[in-house]
Amino acid sequence: DAKTTQPTSMDCAEGRAANLPCNHSTISGNEYVYWYRQIHSQGPQYIIHGLKNNETNEMASLIITEDRKSSTLILPHATLRDTAVYYCIVNSGGSNYKLTFGKGTLLTVNP
Amino acid sequence: DTGVSQDPRHKITKRGQNVTFRCDPISEHNRLYWYRQTLGQGPEFLTYFQNEAQLEKSRLLSDRFSAERPKGSFSTLEIQRTEQGDSAMYLCASSLTFDTQYFGPGTRLTVL
Fold first, then answer.
1. How far apart are the CA of B50 and the nearest CA of chain A, in angstroms?
2. Closest partner residue to A97 among B42, B43, B98, by Cβ?
């Protein structure tokens, strides 16, 4: 799987949009970008994934650059409950089912 | 709540004892995964089941570790002769397809 690079930590004010970047410059054509988050002492929670088009669901939006070398996860109106470690993972799926987690980005939402 | 449950949520044991954890996946999911997470690190893959067949084991899974998934439903992870280095969060995940894995709350193991 391609390696990802994320900032170690970020801060965001409650109610504002949180934009979490991820670099994956060695991504292959068949690899998806996944985002999971992990709230303290809980299991990881799936957020969203995409291949090359931008994606949106009830939790977040995923913006993937045209060259697919980076992406941004957007939480449109961050709340205190969004404080968590956010993991960006590149995975081709299929027979490559192992998710490779890095250290992620600790997002702290401040009141 | 993702629908994946794990039991127990916390386990404290003494070095040398055996422990067993259970994972109940989402009922229609035929794929089940175990991961381990130590403090400050992301989860690391341990093993994978498709139905009752264990198709892959990580090198992290030493001979003291064994996992089963009888009848392709719940799964157990047993650690024999626990060591202090086994202290970690053990996470179970399940999926219907290969794209999205849903994780349980984890079992936190502390080996004294």
1. 11
2. B98
